[in-house]
Amino acid sequence: MNLSQRIQETEARIVKYQDELDVHMKTVDDENPTEEAMIVTKDLTTKIEKQQASLEALKGAEAKLALSAAKANGNGANGGGNGSAQAMTVYNPRPFAFPAKKIQPMDHLCRAITVALKHHAEKNQRPMIDLLKETYGDNENTEMTRMVMGQMVSKAATIPADTTTLHWASELVQTVIGEFIAALMPLSIYPRLAAKGGSFTFGRNGTISLPARNTTSTIAGSFFAQGAPIPVRQGAFSAITLTPKKLGVITTLTREITEHSTPSIEGIVRQAILDDTAVAIDSILLDNNPATTTRPAGLKNGVTPFTAVTGGGIAAVIGDLKGLVGTLIAGTNGNLRAPVWIMNPADALAISLTQAAAGGAFPFLDEIGRGTLMGYPLITSSTCPVDTMFFLDAADFITATGDSPRFDVSDQAVLHMEDTTPLQISSSGTPPTVAAPARSLWQTDTIGIRMIMDLNWAVRRTGVVAYTTAMTWN
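Above: the chain's sequence. Below: its structure in C-alpha coordinate form.
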Protein backbone atom coordinates (compact mmCIF):
# COMPACT_ATOMS: atom_id res chain seq x y z
CA MET A 1 0.00 0.00 0.00
CA ASN A 2 1.09 3.56 -0.59
CA LEU A 3 1.13 6.18 2.12
CA SER A 4 -2.42 7.48 1.51
CA GLN A 5 -3.83 3.97 1.62
CA ARG A 6 -2.02 3.25 4.88
CA ILE A 7 -3.49 6.39 6.44
CA GLN A 8 -6.97 5.38 5.33
CA GLU A 9 -6.53 1.86 6.71
CA THR A 10 -5.33 3.23 10.06
CA GLU A 11 -8.28 5.61 10.31
CA ALA A 12 -10.65 2.73 9.54
CA ARG A 13 -9.11 0.64 12.32
CA ILE A 14 -9.51 3.48 14.82
CA VAL A 15 -13.21 3.78 13.98
CA LYS A 16 -13.60 0.02 14.23
CA TYR A 17 -11.98 -0.16 17.71
CA GLN A 18 -13.98 2.86 18.89
CA ASP A 19 -17.23 1.16 17.84
CA GLU A 20 -16.20 -2.02 19.62
CA LEU A 21 -15.35 -0.05 22.76
CA ASP A 22 -18.71 1.76 22.64
CA VAL A 23 -20.61 -1.52 22.39
CA HIS A 24 -18.51 -3.08 25.12
CA MET A 25 -18.96 -0.19 27.58
CA LYS A 26 -22.73 -0.53 27.33
CA THR A 27 -22.43 -4.00 28.83
CA VAL A 28 -20.10 -3.07 31.69
CA ASP A 29 -21.41 -2.58 35.23
CA ASP A 30 -19.56 0.54 36.40
CA GLU A 31 -20.15 -0.24 40.10
CA ASN A 32 -19.04 -3.86 39.99
CA PRO A 33 -17.04 -4.44 36.77
CA THR A 34 -15.72 -7.95 36.27
CA GLU A 35 -12.02 -8.61 35.81
CA GLU A 36 -12.71 -9.91 32.31
CA ALA A 37 -14.60 -6.72 31.37
CA MET A 38 -11.74 -4.52 32.60
CA ILE A 39 -9.23 -6.51 30.52
CA VAL A 40 -11.33 -6.01 27.36
CA THR A 41 -11.72 -2.28 28.13
CA LYS A 42 -7.99 -1.86 28.63
CA ASP A 43 -7.17 -3.86 25.50
CA LEU A 44 -9.47 -1.80 23.24
CA THR A 45 -8.24 1.47 24.75
CA THR A 46 -4.64 0.44 24.15
CA LYS A 47 -5.36 -0.48 20.52
CA ILE A 48 -7.02 2.88 19.89
CA GLU A 49 -4.08 4.76 21.43
CA LYS A 50 -1.55 2.84 19.31
CA GLN A 51 -3.50 3.38 16.11
CA GLN A 52 -3.86 7.11 16.87
CA ALA A 53 -0.10 7.37 17.42
CA SER A 54 0.53 5.49 14.18
CA LEU A 55 -1.88 7.80 12.34
CA GLU A 56 -0.06 10.90 13.58
CA ALA A 57 3.27 9.43 12.45
CA LEU A 58 1.94 8.58 8.98
CA LYS A 59 0.44 12.02 8.51
CA GLY A 60 3.70 13.61 9.63
CA ALA A 61 5.60 11.50 7.09
CA GLU A 62 3.13 12.49 4.39
CA ALA A 63 3.64 16.18 5.13
CA LYS A 64 7.44 15.83 5.13
CA LEU A 65 7.48 13.97 1.83
CA ALA A 66 5.14 16.45 0.20
CA LEU A 67 7.30 19.38 1.35
CA SER A 68 10.48 17.68 0.08
CA ALA A 69 8.87 16.99 -3.29
CA ALA A 70 7.72 20.59 -3.53
CA LYS A 71 11.21 21.93 -2.83
CA ALA A 72 12.75 19.52 -5.35
CA ASN A 73 10.37 20.78 -8.02
CA GLY A 74 10.82 24.44 -7.15
CA ASN A 75 7.26 24.82 -5.82
CA GLY A 76 7.85 24.77 -2.07
CA ALA A 77 6.93 27.85 -0.05
CA ASN A 78 6.33 28.87 3.52
CA GLY A 79 2.87 30.24 4.02
CA GLY A 80 2.05 32.91 6.61
CA GLY A 81 5.51 32.61 8.13
CA ASN A 82 4.60 29.41 9.97
CA GLY A 83 6.46 27.01 7.65
CA SER A 84 3.35 25.13 6.53
CA ALA A 85 3.41 23.55 3.06
CA GLN A 86 1.33 25.33 0.42
CA ALA A 87 -0.38 23.88 -2.66
CA MET A 88 2.18 22.20 -4.87
CA THR A 89 2.68 20.14 -8.03
CA VAL A 90 4.47 16.83 -7.59
CA TYR A 91 5.81 15.30 -10.79
CA ASN A 92 4.72 11.68 -11.17
CA PRO A 93 5.34 10.71 -7.52
CA ARG A 94 6.05 7.09 -6.72
CA PRO A 95 3.71 5.65 -4.02
CA PHE A 96 5.47 5.71 -0.68
CA ALA A 97 5.45 1.98 0.00
CA PHE A 98 6.08 0.81 -3.58
CA PRO A 99 9.61 -0.46 -4.37
CA ALA A 100 11.44 1.56 -7.00
CA LYS A 101 11.72 -0.07 -10.42
CA LYS A 102 15.17 -1.44 -11.16
CA ILE A 103 16.30 0.50 -14.23
CA GLN A 104 18.34 -1.33 -16.87
CA PRO A 105 20.58 0.48 -19.37
CA MET A 106 18.15 -0.27 -22.22
CA ASP A 107 15.38 1.45 -20.23
CA HIS A 108 17.24 4.77 -20.43
CA LEU A 109 17.24 4.53 -24.23
CA CYS A 110 13.50 3.78 -24.38
CA ARG A 111 12.74 6.56 -21.90
CA ALA A 112 14.79 9.04 -23.92
CA ILE A 113 12.90 8.20 -27.11
CA THR A 114 9.56 8.33 -25.27
CA VAL A 115 10.32 11.85 -24.08
CA ALA A 116 11.37 12.86 -27.60
CA LEU A 117 8.02 11.60 -28.89
CA LYS A 118 6.13 13.56 -26.24
CA HIS A 119 8.22 16.61 -27.11
CA HIS A 120 7.09 16.44 -30.74
CA ALA A 121 3.50 15.64 -29.80
CA GLU A 122 3.39 18.90 -27.83
CA LYS A 123 4.87 20.81 -30.78
CA ASN A 124 8.10 21.52 -28.87
CA GLN A 125 6.29 23.79 -26.42
CA ARG A 126 8.39 22.75 -23.43
CA PRO A 127 12.04 21.80 -23.02
CA MET A 128 12.73 18.07 -23.18
CA ILE A 129 14.36 18.12 -19.75
CA ASP A 130 11.07 19.36 -18.23
CA LEU A 131 9.14 16.59 -19.97
CA LEU A 132 11.67 14.04 -18.75
CA LYS A 133 11.21 15.10 -15.12
CA GLU A 134 7.44 15.33 -15.46
CA THR A 135 7.21 11.84 -16.95
CA TYR A 136 9.72 9.97 -14.78
CA GLY A 137 10.29 12.20 -11.77
CA ASP A 138 13.48 13.96 -10.74
CA ASN A 139 15.91 11.39 -9.36
CA GLU A 140 19.18 9.60 -10.05
CA ASN A 141 17.67 7.42 -12.78
CA THR A 142 16.30 10.48 -14.53
CA GLU A 143 19.76 12.06 -14.49
CA MET A 144 21.18 8.98 -16.21
CA THR A 145 18.43 9.13 -18.84
CA ARG A 146 19.23 12.82 -19.38
CA MET A 147 22.84 11.94 -20.20
CA VAL A 148 21.77 9.20 -22.60
CA MET A 149 19.48 11.75 -24.30
CA GLY A 150 22.38 14.15 -24.59
CA GLN A 151 24.48 11.68 -26.56
CA MET A 152 22.04 9.39 -28.32
CA VAL A 153 18.89 11.29 -29.26
CA SER A 154 18.66 14.00 -31.89
CA LYS A 155 17.91 17.61 -30.95
CA ALA A 156 19.56 17.01 -27.59
CA ALA A 157 21.03 20.52 -27.61
CA THR A 158 18.03 21.53 -25.51
CA ILE A 159 19.58 19.49 -22.70
CA PRO A 160 22.58 21.18 -21.05
CA ALA A 161 25.92 19.39 -21.35
CA ASP A 162 27.59 18.06 -18.23
CA THR A 163 31.35 18.18 -18.69
CA THR A 164 32.13 16.88 -15.21
CA THR A 165 30.55 13.49 -15.88
CA LEU A 166 31.04 13.19 -19.64
CA HIS A 167 33.39 10.22 -19.39
CA TRP A 168 30.96 8.44 -17.09
CA ALA A 169 28.12 9.19 -19.52
CA SER A 170 30.16 7.73 -22.38
CA GLU A 171 30.60 4.53 -20.42
CA LEU A 172 26.86 4.45 -19.78
CA VAL A 173 26.21 4.82 -23.51
CA GLN A 174 28.56 1.91 -24.20
CA THR A 175 26.50 -0.17 -21.78
CA VAL A 176 23.28 0.94 -23.43
CA ILE A 177 24.44 -0.06 -26.93
CA GLY A 178 25.58 -3.42 -25.58
CA GLU A 179 22.20 -4.03 -24.00
CA PHE A 180 20.43 -2.67 -27.09
CA ILE A 181 22.08 -5.34 -29.22
CA ALA A 182 21.51 -7.98 -26.53
CA ALA A 183 17.83 -7.05 -26.34
CA LEU A 184 17.46 -8.13 -29.98
CA MET A 185 18.35 -11.72 -29.09
CA PRO A 186 14.82 -13.15 -28.84
CA LEU A 187 14.03 -11.64 -32.26
CA SER A 188 17.24 -11.45 -34.28
CA ILE A 189 19.89 -13.89 -35.46
CA TYR A 190 22.69 -11.32 -35.57
CA PRO A 191 23.38 -10.79 -31.83
CA ARG A 192 23.32 -14.50 -31.01
CA LEU A 193 25.66 -15.26 -33.88
CA ALA A 194 27.92 -12.31 -33.05
CA ALA A 195 28.19 -13.48 -29.43
CA LYS A 196 29.82 -16.70 -30.61
CA GLY A 197 32.39 -14.91 -32.77
CA GLY A 198 34.63 -11.89 -32.36
CA SER A 199 33.02 -8.55 -31.49
CA PHE A 200 34.74 -5.16 -31.69
CA THR A 201 33.81 -1.48 -31.54
CA PHE A 202 35.05 1.21 -33.92
CA GLY A 203 35.47 3.85 -31.21
CA ARG A 204 37.43 6.70 -32.80
CA ASN A 205 38.92 4.36 -35.41
CA GLY A 206 37.76 4.54 -39.00
CA THR A 207 38.98 1.02 -39.78
CA ILE A 208 39.47 -2.26 -37.94
CA SER A 209 41.95 -4.69 -39.56
CA LEU A 210 42.01 -8.31 -38.43
CA PRO A 211 44.26 -11.20 -39.56
CA ALA A 212 42.63 -14.16 -41.31
CA ARG A 213 43.98 -17.62 -42.15
CA ASN A 214 44.05 -19.09 -45.63
CA THR A 215 42.78 -22.67 -45.30
CA THR A 216 44.81 -23.89 -48.32
CA SER A 217 48.09 -23.76 -46.36
CA THR A 218 49.15 -25.43 -43.13
CA ILE A 219 51.94 -25.01 -40.61
CA ALA A 220 51.24 -28.29 -38.86
CA GLY A 221 54.23 -30.19 -37.50
CA SER A 222 55.52 -33.49 -38.94
CA PHE A 223 57.57 -36.37 -37.59
CA PHE A 224 61.12 -36.49 -38.92
CA ALA A 225 64.05 -38.88 -38.62
CA GLN A 226 67.04 -38.27 -36.37
CA GLY A 227 69.53 -36.03 -38.12
CA ALA A 228 67.06 -35.19 -40.88
CA PRO A 229 66.09 -31.59 -41.64
CA ILE A 230 62.86 -30.29 -40.10
CA PRO A 231 60.17 -29.28 -42.64
CA VAL A 232 59.73 -25.55 -43.01
CA ARG A 233 56.19 -24.45 -43.72
CA GLN A 234 54.76 -21.01 -44.27
CA GLY A 235 51.21 -20.15 -43.39
CA ALA A 236 49.20 -17.86 -45.61
CA PHE A 237 47.46 -14.97 -43.89
CA SER A 238 45.36 -12.12 -45.15
CA ALA A 239 43.72 -9.12 -43.53
CA ILE A 240 40.00 -8.55 -43.07
CA THR A 241 39.21 -4.84 -42.97
CA LEU A 242 36.03 -3.56 -41.38
CA THR A 243 34.92 0.01 -41.98
CA PRO A 244 31.75 1.56 -40.52
CA LYS A 245 28.59 0.83 -42.52
CA LYS A 246 25.43 2.74 -41.65
CA LEU A 247 22.46 0.65 -40.65
CA GLY A 248 19.18 2.54 -40.49
CA VAL A 249 15.52 1.86 -39.96
CA ILE A 250 12.44 4.05 -39.60
CA THR A 251 9.21 3.17 -37.85
CA THR A 252 6.10 5.31 -37.53
CA LEU A 253 3.61 5.79 -34.71
CA THR A 254 0.33 7.68 -34.67
CA ARG A 255 0.15 10.73 -32.44
CA GLU A 256 -2.67 9.06 -30.47
CA ILE A 257 -0.14 6.58 -29.11
CA THR A 258 1.63 9.41 -27.31
CA GLU A 259 -1.57 10.04 -25.37
CA HIS A 260 -1.29 6.64 -23.69
CA SER A 261 0.11 6.30 -20.20
CA THR A 262 3.90 6.37 -19.97
CA PRO A 263 4.39 2.62 -19.40
CA SER A 264 2.24 1.84 -22.46
CA ILE A 265 4.00 4.17 -24.89
CA GLU A 266 7.41 3.18 -23.55
CA GLY A 267 6.60 -0.47 -24.18
CA ILE A 268 5.28 0.30 -27.66
CA VAL A 269 8.43 2.25 -28.54
CA ARG A 270 10.69 -0.49 -27.19
CA GLN A 271 8.93 -3.23 -29.16
CA ALA A 272 8.78 -1.20 -32.37
CA ILE A 273 12.51 -0.47 -32.26
CA LEU A 274 13.47 -4.07 -31.50
CA ASP A 275 11.14 -5.58 -34.09
CA ASP A 276 12.17 -3.28 -36.92
CA THR A 277 15.88 -3.38 -36.10
CA ALA A 278 15.88 -7.19 -35.97
CA VAL A 279 14.33 -7.38 -39.44
CA ALA A 280 16.66 -4.69 -40.83
CA ILE A 281 19.83 -6.46 -39.66
CA ASP A 282 18.87 -10.05 -40.46
CA SER A 283 17.51 -9.30 -43.92
CA ILE A 284 21.02 -8.15 -44.90
CA LEU A 285 22.86 -10.80 -42.89
CA LEU A 286 21.10 -13.74 -44.56
CA ASP A 287 21.05 -12.65 -48.20
CA ASN A 288 23.50 -13.49 -50.99
CA ASN A 289 24.64 -10.00 -51.96
CA PRO A 290 28.32 -9.01 -51.94
CA ALA A 291 29.86 -6.36 -49.72
CA THR A 292 29.69 -2.82 -51.07
CA THR A 293 30.64 0.61 -49.83
CA THR A 294 27.28 0.81 -48.05
CA ARG A 295 26.67 -2.70 -46.68
CA PRO A 296 28.46 -5.91 -45.57
CA ALA A 297 28.19 -9.17 -47.48
CA GLY A 298 25.38 -11.60 -46.77
CA LEU A 299 26.25 -15.05 -45.42
CA LYS A 300 25.17 -16.69 -48.71
CA ASN A 301 27.50 -14.55 -50.80
CA GLY A 302 30.00 -16.69 -52.72
CA VAL A 303 28.64 -19.91 -51.19
CA THR A 304 27.30 -22.73 -53.37
CA PRO A 305 24.23 -24.18 -51.63
CA PHE A 306 24.07 -27.85 -50.74
CA THR A 307 21.39 -29.59 -52.79
CA ALA A 308 18.66 -30.78 -50.45
CA VAL A 309 17.94 -34.51 -50.32
CA THR A 310 14.68 -35.48 -52.01
CA GLY A 311 12.01 -37.85 -50.78
CA GLY A 312 11.03 -36.21 -47.51
CA GLY A 313 10.75 -37.91 -44.12
CA ILE A 314 13.51 -38.90 -41.73
CA ALA A 315 15.84 -39.97 -44.54
CA ALA A 316 15.76 -36.46 -46.06
CA VAL A 317 16.31 -34.83 -42.64
CA ILE A 318 19.36 -36.97 -41.91
CA GLY A 319 20.66 -36.51 -45.45
CA ASP A 320 20.47 -32.72 -45.24
CA LEU A 321 22.10 -32.61 -41.81
CA LYS A 322 24.92 -34.92 -42.87
CA GLY A 323 25.39 -32.98 -46.09
CA LEU A 324 25.72 -29.58 -44.36
CA VAL A 325 28.06 -30.90 -41.67
CA GLY A 326 30.18 -32.66 -44.30
CA THR A 327 30.34 -29.50 -46.41
CA LEU A 328 31.58 -27.44 -43.48
CA ILE A 329 34.13 -30.06 -42.41
CA ALA A 330 35.52 -30.13 -45.95
CA GLY A 331 35.55 -26.34 -46.21
CA THR A 332 37.45 -25.86 -42.94
CA ASN A 333 39.80 -28.85 -43.25
CA GLY A 334 38.06 -30.33 -40.23
CA ASN A 335 38.86 -27.32 -38.05
CA LEU A 336 35.41 -26.60 -36.60
CA ARG A 337 35.51 -24.37 -33.51
CA ALA A 338 32.03 -22.97 -32.87
CA PRO A 339 29.58 -24.50 -35.37
CA VAL A 340 25.97 -23.37 -35.14
CA TRP A 341 22.69 -24.02 -36.96
CA ILE A 342 20.40 -21.20 -38.13
CA MET A 343 16.82 -21.80 -39.27
CA ASN A 344 13.24 -20.61 -39.04
CA PRO A 345 11.27 -21.86 -36.00
CA ALA A 346 8.81 -23.59 -38.36
CA ASP A 347 11.63 -25.66 -39.87
CA ALA A 348 13.00 -26.51 -36.42
CA LEU A 349 9.52 -27.65 -35.42
CA ALA A 350 9.29 -29.79 -38.57
CA ILE A 351 12.55 -31.56 -37.69
CA SER A 352 11.46 -32.14 -34.10
CA LEU A 353 8.17 -33.72 -35.27
CA THR A 354 9.75 -35.99 -37.88
CA GLN A 355 9.33 -39.63 -36.87
CA ALA A 356 11.94 -42.33 -37.33
CA ALA A 357 9.21 -44.51 -38.82
CA ALA A 358 5.44 -44.49 -39.09
CA GLY A 359 4.13 -44.49 -35.52
CA GLY A 360 7.70 -44.50 -34.20
CA ALA A 361 9.80 -42.20 -32.01
CA PHE A 362 10.75 -38.58 -32.67
CA PRO A 363 14.59 -38.73 -32.62
CA PHE A 364 15.16 -34.95 -32.66
CA LEU A 365 12.30 -33.80 -30.42
CA ASP A 366 14.15 -33.61 -27.08
CA GLU A 367 17.37 -32.21 -28.53
CA ILE A 368 15.68 -29.34 -30.36
CA GLY A 369 13.72 -28.64 -27.18
CA ARG A 370 17.12 -28.09 -25.50
CA GLY A 371 18.23 -25.70 -28.26
CA THR A 372 20.70 -27.99 -30.03
CA LEU A 373 20.80 -30.18 -33.13
CA MET A 374 23.33 -33.02 -33.49
CA GLY A 375 25.03 -31.55 -30.43
CA TYR A 376 25.57 -28.12 -32.00
CA PRO A 377 23.76 -24.92 -30.83
CA LEU A 378 20.60 -24.01 -32.71
CA ILE A 379 19.58 -20.41 -33.45
CA THR A 380 15.97 -19.98 -34.55
CA SER A 381 14.34 -16.76 -35.67
CA SER A 382 11.39 -15.79 -37.82
CA THR A 383 13.74 -13.43 -39.68
CA CYS A 384 15.35 -16.50 -41.28
CA PRO A 385 13.31 -17.40 -44.39
CA VAL A 386 11.25 -20.57 -44.17
CA ASP A 387 12.77 -23.49 -46.12
CA THR A 388 16.33 -22.25 -45.58
CA MET A 389 18.86 -23.82 -43.20
CA PHE A 390 22.40 -22.61 -42.41
CA PHE A 391 25.32 -24.39 -40.76
CA LEU A 392 28.40 -22.23 -40.13
CA ASP A 393 31.41 -21.83 -37.89
CA ALA A 394 30.56 -18.77 -35.78
CA ALA A 395 34.17 -18.48 -34.55
CA ASP A 396 35.03 -16.95 -37.91
CA PHE A 397 32.15 -14.46 -37.87
CA ILE A 398 33.49 -11.08 -36.72
CA THR A 399 31.50 -7.92 -36.05
CA ALA A 400 32.16 -4.28 -35.30
CA THR A 401 29.72 -1.64 -34.06
CA GLY A 402 29.83 2.09 -33.43
CA ASP A 403 29.80 3.71 -30.01
CA SER A 404 26.05 4.23 -29.90
CA PRO A 405 22.92 4.23 -32.04
CA ARG A 406 21.44 7.57 -33.04
CA PHE A 407 17.71 8.21 -32.77
CA ASP A 408 15.83 11.04 -34.43
CA VAL A 409 12.15 11.91 -34.07
CA SER A 410 10.16 13.89 -36.63
CA ASP A 411 6.54 14.71 -37.41
CA GLN A 412 7.21 16.65 -40.62
CA ALA A 413 9.16 14.25 -42.84
CA VAL A 414 7.90 12.62 -46.04
CA LEU A 415 8.64 8.89 -46.26
CA HIS A 416 8.57 6.26 -48.97
CA MET A 417 6.72 3.50 -47.10
CA GLU A 418 8.83 0.64 -48.45
CA ASP A 419 10.65 -1.87 -46.21
CA THR A 420 12.99 -3.48 -48.77
CA THR A 421 14.06 -1.10 -51.58
CA PRO A 422 13.06 2.46 -50.62
CA LEU A 423 13.55 5.12 -53.29
CA GLN A 424 14.16 8.83 -53.37
CA ILE A 425 10.83 10.63 -52.91
CA SER A 426 11.32 12.04 -56.42
CA SER A 427 14.09 11.98 -58.98
CA SER A 428 14.54 13.84 -62.23
CA GLY A 429 13.93 12.14 -65.54
CA THR A 430 11.55 11.99 -68.47
CA PRO A 431 9.11 11.54 -66.94
CA PRO A 432 10.27 12.19 -63.34
CA THR A 433 10.10 9.24 -60.94
CA VAL A 434 7.97 9.58 -57.83
CA ALA A 435 8.22 7.00 -55.03
CA ALA A 436 4.97 5.31 -54.03
CA PRO A 437 3.42 4.85 -51.61
CA ALA A 438 4.64 7.99 -49.87
CA ARG A 439 3.38 9.44 -46.60
CA SER A 440 3.64 12.89 -45.12
CA LEU A 441 4.00 12.60 -41.36
CA TRP A 442 2.71 16.13 -40.94
CA GLN A 443 -0.35 15.55 -43.10
CA THR A 444 -1.27 12.23 -41.44
CA ASP A 445 -0.52 13.42 -37.89
CA THR A 446 2.10 10.70 -37.49
CA ILE A 447 5.45 10.61 -35.73
CA GLY A 448 8.48 8.81 -37.16
CA ILE A 449 11.43 7.37 -35.24
CA ARG A 450 14.67 6.84 -37.15
CA MET A 451 17.54 4.71 -35.84
CA ILE A 452 21.01 4.88 -37.40
CA MET A 453 24.06 3.02 -36.13
CA ASP A 454 27.47 2.02 -37.46
CA LEU A 455 27.65 -1.73 -37.99
CA ASN A 456 29.72 -4.15 -40.04
CA TRP A 457 30.59 -7.83 -40.12
CA ALA A 458 32.68 -10.25 -42.15
CA VAL A 459 33.63 -13.91 -42.39
CA ARG A 460 37.36 -14.34 -41.74
CA ARG A 461 37.95 -17.32 -44.06
CA THR A 462 36.23 -19.16 -46.86
CA GLY A 463 34.50 -22.48 -46.41
CA VAL A 464 32.94 -21.71 -43.02
CA VAL A 465 29.35 -21.24 -44.25
CA ALA A 466 27.06 -23.95 -45.66
CA TYR A 467 23.36 -23.71 -46.39
CA THR A 468 20.54 -25.45 -48.19
CA THR A 469 17.07 -24.52 -49.41
CA ALA A 470 13.94 -26.27 -50.68
CA MET A 471 14.13 -29.01 -48.06
CA THR A 472 11.64 -31.82 -48.70
CA TRP A 473 10.97 -32.81 -45.07
CA ASN A 474 9.21 -29.59 -44.02
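The chain has three domains: 3-78, 105-183, 202-215+236-474.
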